[in-house]
Specification:
This protein is mainly α. The chain has one domain. It is about 50% helix and about 0% strand. Helix 2 runs antiparallel to helix 3. The chain is globular and about 35 Å long.
């Protein structure tokens, strides 16, 4: 899903941004970082490059921020 979302900005982002995002996605997959890390980067890039479709997706903010449900790394292990 994360790689699919990245596809919506792949033509606009720089090579450095692509590498950084891909690394974060792989790190999430390998349980090194929580999902909020690549999601925050995706949201930043979507805002930077005005990817309105991505910004409208509930996947970026499915829960109230205060619950911090996407910040716990141990929940993925």
């Amino acid at each position: 899903m994360l790689e699919h979302m990245a596809g919506f900005v792949k033509k606009e982002i720089s090579q450095i941004e692509k590498e950084m995002l891909h690394t974060q996605i792989v790190d999430f997959y390998n349980h090194i970082v929580p999902i909020i890390v690549p999601l925050s980067t995706l949201e930043l890039l979507a805002k930077k490059y005005n990817a309105t479709y991505l910004l409208s997706q509930k996947f970026l903010h499915p829960y109230p921020k205060e619950l911090a449900l996407r910040s716990e790394l141990k929940s993925y292990k």
